[in-house]
Branched-chain amino acid transport system permease protein
Amino acid sequence: MEIFIQLIYSGVALGMIYAVIAFGYQVTFATSGTLNFGQGEALMLGALVGLTLVGLGVNYWLMIPLVCLFGLAQGALVERVGVRPAIKTRSEFGWIMATIALGIIFKNVAENVWGRDDLRFPSPLPEAPIKVFGANVLPMELLVVVGALALMLAVEIFNRKSIYGKAVVATSDDRAAAGLMGIDTSRVITFSYALSSMTAAFAGVLIAPLTLTGATMGAVLGLKAFAVAIIGGLSSGMGVIVGGLVLGIAETTTGFYLSTGYKDVPGLVLLLLVLALKPAGLFGKTAIKKV
């Protein structure tokens, strides 16, 4: 039973990382109907930039806001270079290929700057596990859960309380109407991409001390987070949390009780079932278009 609880703890920590990245997918989809398929690379760059700053002597807690600023700039660049031209020309698939291409470019840049070898990210917290309800849990895993929830809560509060956040919500509800009301929707979309990459970069520095850091670390995480966004629903914040927890726990338990070679199967099976039975996601709302 103790082992099972430990697997649950690890699955929750992993699932919350998936949820944060999936939350970034939601932000861009809400404002522009597009997705940044380079989210995994944004996470990877955040982790590597954070590792560099820590190596230069910057305190871990001071490093986090600096990495978030880097994520904001990187996301804005992706929108300006890859997404905005496709939106202006109404290219249906242009933004897909542009964000994928930029992700590959970022990965190649990372390989040339930091090398191809995986690097160890020093943990800011003690690495000795602590007992919680009879099972061991790493302090860094607790930080991942708390940090992920705090970030998503902060974004929700920003959207509800700030003027610019309300502009984001208005653009999400009806971009055309928001434009008629005087809201600069292009700037809002840029901000949504910046916010999306910032959440991924933040997730990168959270998970980096629990794993190895390298140029390839983001590809699988970004893909699985996209699956979480689809499972939970691209319009539901609660959905990405539930979807992330389900996928994370399914992976850790399957990897231990069956085989690590099968740990990806439950999540993919759930994804196929959701696509077949409820394409809008478990918590998503089906959009009705008037014609």
Summary: Strands lie at 119-120, 130-132, 135-137, 212-213. Residues 2-32 form the longest helix (31 residues). The radius of gyration is 19 Å.
